[in-house]
Every structure is written in structure tokens, then in C-alpha cells.
Amino acid sequence: MSASDTTLSFDQYRLDDWLAWMEAHHPRQIELGLDRIRTVANRLSLTPNAAKVITVGGTNGKGSCAAFLENILRAQGYRVGVYTSPHLLAYNERVRIDGDVVGDADFCAAFRAIHAAADDVSLTYFEYGTLAALWLFSQTALDVWVLEVGLGGRLDAVNLIDADVAVLTTIDLDHQDWLGDDRETIGREKAGIFRRDRLAICVDAQPPQSVLDTAAQVGAKLLTLRDGIDVAVHADHWRWQSVLAGAPVYDDLPLPSLPLPSAVAALTALHALAIVIDRESIQRGLIQTHLPGRFQRFERDGVEIILDVAHNPQAAHYLAQRLRDTSVTRTLAVFELMQDKDAAGIVSALHAQIDGWYIGELADNPRAAKSATLTKIMREQQVEAVHAYPSVDMAFVAALAAAHAGDRVVVFGSFFTVAAVLHRVMADSECIRGGEGAHP
């Protein structure tokens, strides 16, 4: 059975059927705004009740921040619901309750309830997913909801919920078609998750003035690395302190494998909630937090394989920094990304770290860039060692065949690119999971 079968009732839909129907149901893949989703949420009476809410926005590092929050809170014994996007291998990854991904049957129950309540309101794929997370959380006794913004902030579906603490990780150019062409405009959109008299946190090293202005206009209590948060990084540890009342000073915290600003934001947000968090739980959460597709490392026959979802220039610069920290014979790149991304900026950021480029298309994804387009952009930047293949999988196989012991193959450019390779690597019995390097 499939969602294309008109004889199939909604009560019979499996998760794949729901996802296919949701993708085709709304006339636009993305339609920002809160009116539609608020109408349906009100019909379903979706509220956090006694749970605290942390909303995480920003350009890069949102998923890492959400993971730090989840793991530290759970180490302390709190029950946590986490909503993130996009997923890598399975849709279920988007919603976790008390550390477990939500099963197919529970998602289907949520979608049935939302569909019945929506009635005359047409919802996007992302709005359905957001409401499903909120519905599932509302069915469970949770202490904290962690909600990751999907796109922007002010008009994103997640902004339906008033956060007790709002977090911005970094602000940079991405999704310009929707958010604007400069950091000031984008920052204003992202700061739309701030609320009056509630804590807001921004760990961007140079926050746009628009973020500061929005906090002041809204009446949010903003903490930044310049005002309210103090961080010092040493060779193998870091120190955190803040102006938050009663917050201790942590002098010797372990460096995480995921971006440090995301850990700083998480730690600050948790203390802003004024709930009990002890040092042991913080240390455990920092050490144990890893995410698939974020500098995820494998090894095969002496060749290191690194998977990273870097898909904009800021993320590419961070990836380049991490690659520079390890000496290898050669680095071969498997690369593909979406048409609306800054390919030239990404290539420029990583050019000096890459010895050979293997471009593979995502033929079943209409948003993906064509290999001819990427090759042209790379030639314009004097990148000569470029090899194009009909698929990301074929590009990865070719890169791995060309690599020798002591080389590495780094796969990046989009979640879709990494997912295509992760499927193969996870199924390869000869691949060995590598250790996670510390934050540079």
C-alpha cells in the first residue's frame, strides 16, 4: 500500500504513507508564518503545561546545542523531549523522548490527530512535523522541551511556543532566499524567538547589531560572550562563568567533540532555567555528546573517513579548521550540495585542505546542484583535480578506491550527501568507527 493509493484511508496509513502525503499535500514546500499552525495547535490544546521550554536557533550548531542540552539534562535525571531537523537516515530521528526516538505507530497517531484537527487548514510538511512533536510531548510527562528552529526564527513553526530560554548559536549567510542577504537582516529574523522578560542567549562571537536591538525592543534579557558570559579555552579544558544569579564557576570542563559555542550556549541556557544541574552531569553530558554527520569518523584499510554536514561557508571554515588539526598524506573530498547554497564560498573555505574533489549528483533530489554547475564554479577558483560521477555513492566509491593508507576521505555539502554515504558506511562490515577529536 502507498499514499498514492486512493482506496487507502488515513487510519490505514503507515509512516511512509503519511510522509509522502505530507510532501504533496501543501502547494508550497516552505511557507513561513504562524497563523495556520497556531490555529491547529489551539484546536489540539498544545501547551508545555509544567515543562520548561528551550528554543534553539542560529545558522550552525543548533543540533549540537540541542544534543548537549538533552544529554546533560538526562544525566541529571530529567525527562526531556527533543525536536530537531532535518534527519539523516530516518524521519523518526527528528523526535526523541527520554533519549529514545519515537516509533512509527506513535508518529502515525500524532499525524491522525493533527489531520483531524486541521480540517480546513492546509499545513506544510514541516508544520505537520512540528505539531507532531508538540503533540507527542504533550502526551508525556516531561520536565523540559528542547525545540530546534527549522528556518529563521520569527516565522518558523517552532516559534509558536513561547520559550523560557531562547538560544542563538551563530548567525551567518544561509537560506538568503527566505531570510535576507546580510547578517543584520538574518539576525533580526533569528532573534524573533526572543520573549519579553525571558532569558535570551547568543554565543556568536560577533553578534549582529540587529540581535542586540531586537532583544532591547522585545524586552528580553540578553546574555552574550561580550556581556554576561565568560569563556576561556585552554589546551585540554575550558572555563565557564556567567552573571546569572547563583551560577557557579566551572574551571576545568572537558572539551567536547562538537562545536564549543554550542556547549557554551547549552550550559548557559540550563543555568538560566534555574534548575539543579551538578558538575558531574555537565561533564558526562559534554563527553558523551556526539551526533551522526558532525565530523563523524570511520576507518577502512588505513583510510580515515569523515562525514560532516557542512553546507554553508561558516560551517566549511569550521570544517577546514578541524582538518588542519590532523596531518594526513592526502585529503580527498566527496562533495554535493543544494542549488541555493554558496558553493563558491564553501569551495574557497576548503580549497587549501583538499587534494582531490569527487562530485556526485543527487539525481532524485530536484533541489540538488548539477555536477556541471559545481565543476564550473570550482574551475573558476582554479581547482583542477575535479572528478564528476552520476551519484554521490559512486563518487564515494571512487574516492575510497583512489585513497591509500594514511589518506582521508571527507564527505560534506548537505545532509543528503552525508546520508547517501552513511548508509553505505554503516553497512560496510570492514569500516571501523573512529574516535571523536576534541574541539580545536
Which regions contain 5 or more consecutive residues with pLDDT less than 50? 1-5, 435-440
Q: Classify the beta-strand content into a percent band.
A: 15-25%
For the termini, the CA-CA separation is: 50 Å
Number of strands: 18
Structural class: alpha/beta
DSSP summary: helix tally: 15
Characterization of this structure:
The protein is an alpha/beta fold and 440 residues long. The protein contains 15 helices and 18 strands. It has helices at 15-25, 35-44, 62-75, 104-118, 125-138, 176-179, 183-190, 209-218, 260-272, 279-288, 313-324, 343-350, 371-380, 392-402, 415-427; strands at residues 52-57, 80-83, 95-97, 100-101, 144-148, 165-168, 199-202, 221-224, 229-233, 237-242, 250-254, 296-300, 303-307, 331-335, 356-360, 386-389, 408-412, 432-433. An eight-stranded mixed beta sheet has the order 4-3-2-5-1-6-7-8, sandwiched between helices. β14, α12 (343-350) and β15 form a beta-alpha-beta unit. Mean pLDDT is 92; it is low at 1-5 and 435-440.
